[in-house]
Design goal:
This protein is mainly α. The chain has 3 helices and no strands. The protein has one domain. It is elongated, with a radius of gyration of 21 Å.
């Protein structure tokens, strides 16, 4: 059932996401930092709502556990992708050098 407290929560999350998206940051945020800010904008208000309405602590822990695991995975995926891109660039540069020296 959709109630006023949910509408307020969703509106607040939407406003937060809009503010952080169009906020005049001193410089463009790296993608990983932008994802982190967005995740916090979604989940901090939800956590507050769950605590205010006295939902089981297990729900809050499950929520933040999933967020943490997702964050760790994304962090390592970005690191792996960077290593793979560097390896491919190095291979391409070595191939070009070999072709020039022939």
């Amino acid at each position: 059932m959709i109630t006023w407290d949910l509408i307020v929560l969703w509106t607040f999350v939407g406003v937060l996401l809009g503010l952080t998206h169009w906020l005049p940051w001193p410089e463009r945020l790296p993608r990983l930092a932008a994802y982190s800010v967005g995740t916090l904008c979604l989940n901090v208000p939800l956590t507050w709502w769950l605590v205010v309405y006295e939902y089981d602590l297990k729900i809050v822990l499950a929520q933040w556990g999933c967020i943490a695991i997702g964050g760790v995975f994304v962090f390592f995926a970005y690191g792996y992708d960077a290593l793979l891109n560097n390896y491919r660039r190095r291979q391409a540069a070595e191939k070009q050098l070999d072709e020039r020296t022939k």
